[in-house]
Design a protein that fits this description.
With about 140 residues, the protein is mainly alpha-helical. It has 6 helices and 2 strands, in the order ααααββαα. About 50% of the residues lie in helices and about 5% in strands.
C-alpha cells in the first residue's frame, strides 16, 4: 500500500484564516509575529500557501486564531473516501462556523463554498452590527 504524500496540514486554510484575522484587526505581519512568536517571514509564506509550519508554529497560530487545530488538518482517508470534519469552539463566531460547514459540504466546490461563505459573512455583519435595525432579534421592545 503506497503512502500518500498529501500534507496533513491544510496550509491554504491556515493562511486564509491568518490573513483574514490580521486584516480585520489592522495588524501587520510583524504585529502577528510579535503576538505569536512565529517569524514574519514564516507567516508570509503560510499566508501565501507556500509555507509548511512545524507543530509548534501550528499550535501557536491556532491558539492566536482561537480555532481548533482540527480545523486546519487535512481530511483522513476512510474506505477511499475523504472525510471532512466540522470542528469548532463554542466561542467561535457564527461566520467561522458557517464557513466550516460550507467547506465540508460535499455538494459544493471549494470555490462555491468560499463564495457562499463570503456572502454570509457580509450579510451577517450587516444584520448583526450594533445599532442596526435589522438584527432580527425576537424580543425587541
Amino acid at each position: 500500500m503506497a503512502q500518500s504524500t498529501k500534507s496533513l496540514v491544510n496550509t491554504v486554510e491556515l493562511g486564509r484564516a491568518i490573513r483574514r484575522k490580521r486584516e480585520e484587526a489592522g495588524m501587520s505581519l510583524r504585529d502577528v509575529a510579535d503576538a505569536t512568536s512565529v517569524s514574519a517571514s514564516t507567516l508570509s509564506r503560510i499566508e501565501n500557501g507556500t509555507g509548511k509550519p512545524d507543530a509548534d508554529n501550528i499550535a501557536r497560530l491556532t491558539g492566536w486564531l482561537n480555532v481548533p487545530m482540527e480545523r486546519i488538518m487535512g481530511g483522513r482517508q476512510l474506505d477511499g473516501d475523504e472525510t471532512r470534519a466540522v470542528v469548532y469552539f463554542p466561542q467561535e463566531g457564527t461566520p467561522e462556523i458557517v464557513e466550516a460547514h460550507l467547506r465540508a459540504d460535499r455538494n459544493l466546490t471549494p470555490e462555491t463554498a468560499k463564495a457562499l461563505s463570503e456572502l454570509f459573512r457580509v450579510a451577517y455583519t450587516q444584520f448583526s452590527s450594533p445599532g442596526s435595525d435589522n438584527r432580527g432579534r425576537k424580543n425587541r421592545k
